[in-house]
Amino acid sequence: MDDSALPEMPSHLRELIFPQQCPDKCFACAFVKRNLVHKLVRDKHLKNLQSLTNVSHVNTEHIIPFNSVACTIIRIKVYAKGDSPQLSVRLVLKTLNIQHQQVEVILKSFMSEVAFYNIVAKLLYIFPRSHFVFPKCYLDSFQWMDDGPPYIVLEDLIADGYEQFDDKLDENHLKAVFKHLGMFHGDSIRLVTNERFDSKSNFSKLMKNDTLIANKDQIMIKQKEAISAFLNNSLIEAVNSGIRDKIRTKLEKVKDLEKSNISLVHGSLTRYKTFYKQCNGECKIKFIGFKTIMLSSPVIDFGRILFTNLPNENDVSKLEEFCRNILEIYLKQIELSCSEMVQCVERQIIDNLLFSYVSLDTKESEAIENHIPILNMLNSLGSLD
């Protein structure tokens, strides 16, 4: 996982003549039909297709317009033979668009996501609840090979009935998200603190990987810039002087967050990377887009989801009650994973919520209408102490 060890793209891949299997003549669609489905069937990843002779045909569809980004995402439909071909399997392939001029730019972040599924997700399956919080990965590859670039093959959440959040979450959906976030963080903390993984294990090497460290460094740089901008914002002058002084003093302690490496976190979790599905009266949640994973404080994920979905409430006591209820739901899941860490996690969340608040991007911050009540609520929670 060292950056120096990342395999280079074979030069011949850029020079291939792409077959007429896709309107865009992309390599990925050809790769799916020539190689990927064969691998999935051969290695028994698709239980309802026992051999390649059972496959009638394969359809591919670009989820994101081809060549719009350097990452290609393709929906795959595999049809089984029969009197009339039956749709048997739906999958999603995520890989690099080797025809895009920016492909080298996103290589490291894409490899972080491959590493999540190749190493972290497999270890999290040790814990029985973890498969609830991210898509199932059928196959992955770190390597540039003759048959294509690195890739991951995931379950198709849309085909399985999941929907993507595109608006502010209501209270019930938000509670479901924090329940599942608590599952992910709780099991991640168990993984990070598990003494069975020695310094030579793939997981230990991943935690020291330059890209993951760079992910956190980038977060901290942006956070310090956000703090500087916030301290010069007229908003801070609108709160009373006592709270204003506490905010200024608290924001000088940003280094405390740099040392809070207790959990593996998503790093850029938003509602747009969150899918939901109602099933038997329960709301199931799946998170996607793990290209910014890092070892850090759980507040990085917790705070952003909380502040971008808080109700537009001006009553500080009601806001505080709402936040404490959300925190209780989240901590209950932490307790189920690692009861000895509950107080530590609770303290980290409360102590560092202000950093999450000031780190919201411009669009997220502008969507909030009750900034002053939120700052007063943080004071009531003890986040400014």
Structure description:
With 385 residues, this protein is α+β, with helices and mostly antiparallel strands. It has two domains: 12-106 and 135-155; 162-381, Aminoglycoside phosphotransferase (APH), C-terminal lobe (Aminoglycoside 3'-phosphotransferase, Chain: A, domain 2, Alpha-Beta Complex). Helices cover 43% and strands 15% of the residues. The chain has helices at residues 27-42, 107-124, 171-192, 202-207, 210-231, 241-251, 255-258, 299-307, 316-338, 342-358, 362-366, 371-381; strands spanning 55-62, 71-80, 86-96, 137-141, 151-155, 163-164, 263-265, 274-279, 282-287, 294-296. The strands form three sheets. It has a five-stranded antiparallel sheet. Strands 6-8-9 form a three-stranded antiparallel sheet, covered by helices on one side. Helix 3 (171-192) runs parallel beside helix 9, helix 8 (299-307) crosses helix 10 and helix 9 packs across helix 12 (371-381). The radius of gyration is 23 Å and the shape is elongated. The model is unreliable at 1-21 (pLDDT under 50).
For the structure shown, list the relevant keywords.
five-stranded antiparallel β-sheet; alpha+beta; Aminoglycoside 3'-phosphotransferase, Chain: A, domain 2; three-stranded antiparallel β-sheet; single chain; 385 residues; 2 domains; 15% strand
